[in-house]
Amino acid sequence: MNRMIGLVAAVAALQMSVCLTAEAAQTFSWDKNNWVAFDDTVTATVECPDPAAAEWVKTHFAEWYGAHAPNVTGGTTGLALQAGDEAYAAEVNADGVKIHARTLAGARWATYTLRQIAIAKRGTFKTEGMLLPTMKISDAPHLPFRAIHFCWFPEVRPQQIERAIRLAALMKFNYAIIEPWGMYKSEKHPWWPWPQANMTKAEVSRLVAIGKDIGITLIPQINCYGHASSSRGCTIKHSALDIHPEYEPLFEPGGWNWCLSNPETQRVLRELIAEMHENFGNPPYFHIGCDEAERQSCPECVKTPNGELVLKHITGLAEFVKSRGARAMMWHDMLLDRADFRWKGFTVCGNKETGAILDKLPKDIIICDWQYQDTAQHEKGALTDWPTMTYFKEQGFSVACCPWMNDKSMKPMADHIVKIGGFGFIETTWHHLRGSEWQKMYMGAAYAAWGSPVSHDVSFQRSLRLVGQDMKVTDYLDTGFLNYQVSPGWWVNN
Ligand SMILES: [Zn+2]
């Protein structure tokens, strides 16, 4: 879409962003030629059984719009709601703004939609209040669990993590899974992360509190099986063994897997899980990773059948998570045999032994099935079924679909999860949380998780700028979707 657009076209684009929501809405109508004040002369009526909702809207209007914030009051609106805890309805006209929701969460989403659409009043030097088009919207998410999965790399600025969390909330995701790549500064096991780890307890607590306010619950992750190096395999880095070789017995030779036969491994991982889970405010889920593991190879591990060893390890961790009042989440790929013809064309990484443990695993584990195909097959519209997800569901597990940059698959995947009664939607981002790929992933996933056909428009840049305003960013590096617009060495090298 052309970014050099006039007001009307911009609003047309915003309609798409709205979203994320508008096309999923059973009702959405607006008048692009009729804009009304959204300022301190206006009253927003918030109808919600939770009195905290009106208070939240009032507080955040004041934060966003300062002295020009609309007034907020509780009351009835007469607006119809769709089903579900997070449904919301909103109306804007010359009489003011109305918001109806069953929960604070629903009221937040309504408020975010209004914020995404509002523009500054015209004709002044500085902003003196906002404008909204007259509109009426009734909306509800496609899936109740909608997450973004982040990687906290040494190379990523902590400000970027906060921006990513805030932007996810603004786009109406309600969970963020955070995977520290050697960056969680454990106090219990200080040898585990890199020495420069900046995911400190204080920083995590700060982000958790922000998430609670803006409507997104943070879920911690530890790779408890493969990926034990906390580094990309192509770098051969290892956050623990490169600096602290004395911990070699905890890992398989090479360091990619944890040593599953060593009882110290289970003790250490449980202690790390407890530390992070508590630090994250004891959320209802904990992700234990478990993707892309190698076959165990140390002299002690090979004495036990591979499947038996893996089953005991995962079960022990899942039961420990359960003892803390939460549910374990894990990646799916080791739980299916790559030689099984039923999964041809889909991502699976297990062998015959690990593929045979599924029916013995605790059923409260949530299986996160990552499938990254944006195939020619799908281009023809053929890929509307994900047999691995269906299989996990049939085996009695909660299953979440996890796309990546395959945005054409996102909506069909979300529809498939709804169809089979699955658990939710997790957008994985890995090392691509920047630039147009960031935009593609967030926009595609937001639309899909709210039940709309995937679309890409200018609402990403507007939303990202709002996030920057909320953070009061002042550094050039924390604006836009790239740190630099040309390579930092460009002046020298060119
Ligand atoms: Zn071993």
Average residue pLDDT = 92
Share of β-strand residues: 15-25%
Q: Major sheet, described briefly? A: 8 strands, parallel
Q: What is the CA–CA distance across the termini?
A: 32 Å
Question: What is the CATH-assigned architecture of the largest domain?
Answer: Alpha-Beta Barrel
Q: List the domain count as a whole number.
A: 2
Shape: globular
The largest beta-sheet arranges its strands as 10-9-8-15-14-13-12-11
Topology:
Elements: H1 7-18, E1 27-38, E2 43-47, H2 51-65, E3 71-74, E4 88-93, E5 96-101, H3 104-117, E6 119-120, E7 130-139, E8 145-152, H4 158-170, E9 175-180, H5 201-214, E10 217-220, H6 263-279, E11 285-287, H7 306-323, E12 327-331, E13 366-370, H8 376-379, H9 387-394, E14 398-402, H10 407-420, E15 424-428, H11 435-449, H12 459-471, H13 490-493
Parallel strand pairs: 2-3, 2-5, 8-9, 8-15, 9-10, 11-12, 12-13, 13-14, 14-15
Antiparallel strand pairs: 1-7, 4-5, 4-7, 6-7
Helix pairs in contact: 1-3, 2-3, 4-5, 4-12, 6-7, 10-11
The structure holds zinc ion (ZN).
